[in-house]
Specification:
Keywords: Glycosyltransferase, Membrane, Transferase, Transmembrane, Transmembrane helix. The chain has 507 residues and is mainly α. It contains 21 helices and no strands. It is 64% helix and 0% strand. The two termini are 33 Å apart.
Length: 507
């Protein structure tokens, strides 16, 4: 592209994406009955259609921006602006955050007092969760209390203030993605496009203000810090600093503690490559050194105000009790159709979820983690980033509850790997389908939304116009590479993996 055409394309995608984001913001503001009411009136259908048009425009701008390799952060910033002042987008979680913050700010323990007692904010909490206590760790609750205090308990501003940590999450996420992509041999610009500038990420972290965003950003910073210090010949310090950040991520949302797996794998790999000892003994020592500060930080923050592990209380809402994308939750609902009380199945579903998750994580470690003495496959040092992505995916799929934004962490981690073109196309398709799934589930049950998402995935794979468009996007993300025109599937300097998967050399 010429300089002029690039400038025109930049102006186009910024304006179209801004318009799309503004329409989504307007829809979130005017939707009188969030969710899927039984009898939508004509006045309600209008905002819904505007939201759908906005989503289409935003996704189109994102795809068109793939070729603009130096404007990822600008695009993300511009597209985020209309989302900042509106009500929570595609989720009611922001109201729950404000309600929990209100309770803590007014001297109540959110682990003992239900969200229905949170003053005027109680009416905004989703009906299913209003009678339950908080499920988030204390780190999130203290942030929510601080934002509520900043808003002086104003109902609207208390919810909107939850976007302050969300924006901070996007800034940290961008820094960590750039740093890790460079360290791991991936293209930072492609990684930014797939993550920070991705509407799937923007709509859920900025629009939906989910605390998953800050948890993920801090967890990635833990991996980045640990790897950077290990490469500076200070692996033990890397484990300590990374462990502190892992503990902090866990107090923001529980899955953050899983970053400790990737931290140990990354540091162990680098230490052995630099001449350090391999074997189960050194590996166990590195696990211990990383775990101690993580547990210490988690315990210290949990002890503030005497909150402790109250998120484990039986009064907290169980994700297995509602319909979600989780296979376990869907099975519970289907058994419930036969007349079995769902409340009686929740403890069983939760236990099954924990067992499956543990087994899956152990399997992921032995498949992609460091296993001293192993021959073939991933090798004795493993593939740490692939391991971390697999662990986060297993946690999401085996959990008792699964929402589309739970898949953002594995998407971000895979984007940090040097990828072949078809994997870039697959991640672009994931961004499209994930965004559409979030929108569709705002109106319908996962029993309808998931089959539609499956059809969309099939179209991305088999429908020639869609597949060709995604292939073009992947080509633009790869940028010029020696021999690209001859091979059609050129790799990066580290992207020489087989046709069956991503290039993960050194990952």
């Amino acid at each position: 592209m010429t300089v002029t055409s690039r400038r025109l394309r930049l102006g186009e995608v910024l304006v179209v994406g801004l318009l799309g984001s503004a329409l989504i913001s307007w829809w979130a503001w005017t939707d009188a009955a969030p969710g899927h009411p039984a009898d939508p009136a004509g006045m309600e259908i209008g905002p819904w259609l505007a939201g759908l048009l906005g989503l289409v425009l935003l996704l189109a701008a994102w795809l068109r921006s793939a070729v603009l390799r130096s404007h990822r952060l600008l695009s993300a910033a511009v597209w985020s602006v209309p989302l900042l002042p509106t009500r929570p987008v595609l989720s009611l979680d922001g109201w729950a955050y404000a309600a929990q913050g209100w309770l803590l700010r007014h001297g109540h323990n959110p682990y003992l007092v239900a969200q229905s007692q949170a003053g005027q904010l109680a009416a905004r909490v989703d009906d299913h969760w209003s009678g339950t206590t908080a499920v988030y760790p204390p780190g999130s609750l203290w942030i929510q209390a601080a934002m509520t205090a900043l808003a002086r308990d104003h109902t609207y501003w208390a919810a909107v203030a939850m976007r302050i940590p969300a924006v901070l999450a996007m800034v940290l996420l961008a820094a960590a993605v750039i740093g890790l992509a460079r360290a791991l041999g991936a293209d930072p610009q492609s990684a930014l496009w797939l993550t920070v500038a991705n509407p799937f990420v923007l709509l859920n972290i900025v629009g939906g203000m989910h605390n998953d965003g800050l948890e993920l950003a801090v967890a990635l910073c833990a991996l980045w810090a640990g790897l950077a210090l290990a490469r500076a010949s200070r692996p033990w310090l890397g484990l300590v600093v990374g462990g502190v950040l892992v503990g902090l991520a866990g107090t923001l949302k529980q899955p953050g503690v899983l970053a400790g797996i990737g931290l140990v794998a990354l540091v162990h790999r680098q230490a052995v490559k630099d001449g350090g000892r391999d074997g189960w003994g050194p590996l166990g020592a590195r696990i211990l050194v990383g775990a101690v500060p993580a547990v210490a930080v988690f315990a210290a923050i949990s002890s503030i105000g005497g909150l402790g592990l109250g998120w484990l209380n039986s009064t907290a809402g169980s994700p297995a009790s509602v319909t979600s994308d989780s296979p376990i939750a869907l099975l519970v609902q289907m058994i419930g159709w036969a007349g079995v009380p769902i409340a009686a199945m929740v403890p069983i579903a939760t236990a099954v979820s924990l067992v499956l998750t543990a087994v899956a994580i152990v399997w992921c470690w032995f498949r992609w983690g460091p296993v001293p003495g192993r021959r073939g496959g991933a090798g004795p040092l493993g593939r740490p980033i692939v391991l971390q992505a697999a662990v986060m995916t297993a946690f999401a799929l085996c959990g008792a509850g699964l929402q589309p934004w739970y898949l953002i962490p594995p998407l971000v981690l895979v984007a940090l790997i040097p990828l072949r073109r078809r994997w870039l196309a697959a991640l672009a398709a994931a961004g499209l389908i994930g965004s559409g799934l979030c929108f569709l589930q705002w109106f319908s049950s996962p029993f309808l939304a998931l089959p539609v998402a499956a059809l969309a995935a099939a179209a991305c794979r088999w429908w020639t116009p869609v597949r060709s468009r995604l292939d073009l996007v992947a080509h633009q993300l790869r940028g010029p590479a020696p021999g690209a025109a001859r091979s059609g599937t050129s790799g990066t300097a580290t992207g020489a993996a087989g046709a069956a998967g991503p290039s993960v050399t050194g990952m």
